[in-house]
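Exercise: predict the fold of this chain.
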Amino acid sequence: MGADLTTDVLVVGAGPAGSMTAKWAARHGARVLMIEKRQEIGSPVRCGEGMSKAWLSEVGIRPGPWINVEVEGARIYSPSEKCFEINERHAGNEVGYVVERDGFDKALAIDAANAGADIRLKTAATGVLKEGGRIVGVRAKQYGEPFEIRAKVTVGADGFESQIGRWAGLPTNIATRDMDTCLQYRMTNVDCDTRYCDFFLGTVAPGGYVWVFPKADGLANVGIGVQLSKVHGIAEPRKYLDAWIAKHPGYAKGKTIDVVGGGVSISPPVKQSVTDGLMLVGDAARMIDPLTGGGIANGCIAGKICGEVAAEAVHAGDVSKAFLDRYEKGWRAKLEEKLYRNWYAKEKLCTLPDATFDKIIDALQGVRLEKLSVHNILKAVHDKYPEVTKEFEAFL
């Protein structure tokens, strides 16, 4: 039996949302322990590695050596490969930098450690501890040795497959139509343009898209997300991705040096992210943008709020759901409206035939959008093809 531990704030999971929570809780004077089941923070990478940059200063992240490329914008391709180009300033939440995710995650963990958080690797939570209906920590294992970690506040930052929320009795179930199954190759010797992140829509990736994120000249992440409800067999996303690559000579000549796969939620956020003694943050709380599949920015923004509220609760001696609801209200005020709006848009877009995607991109030719949003896109499309936007009237 390992030695039992006690702390003020326990963060389960050392991804971006977990590290951000740990950092801000420690900065506000709480004793913080962050545990990570893997032996190395950030690895293996399960991410397209594209992210926006406007939010970084808001949560105290400084650009670092984890940046591969700063892109000028995004190119969105219709099924017939008509292209709509948008610059980074207007391109919303997923364009700005292409990064080394393992380096980024480690940099955030270093920030958390430097703020005073303790970190334990190869330490997996195996259950939650409850007393009088309140979560008071977790059962854990490190190197096969079981022990308990008791905490005033426990934070589940354990990602898409989160167990913490389920163990605590929070509803985290998810429908197959609200999940994408993703596969990505890192490819060398390809003809990528380092100025743009590229997105390809339509039946090339049912219910999702193909992406190309440039890492350097001749080096790119080429990936696909396909809606799980549209997949018949685990090999199907690979067949779709391989078929797309085969049709594009600039990528067909490339060599694959790395393969990653995994699931991504494209669902609304959880109905409830706090209970007595516990908060959920990041992918564990379904904060991934349902339209883009990007979750880094949302996880970090919510993580800052989560860390601050965790420290406040410790100092106040009140870790009740009523007190922790400050976090619930805080992250929902910043993120919820867009998450729901983009989920509704995703639900509609998944039903569109290729011909409609072609019309949408055609309608956007030469249009200067102030900001890339569902509303602005539909408004522009409505001017040229009003029949296309009939189903989307709630967004206009």
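Check your answer against the key: The chain has a mean pLDDT of 91.
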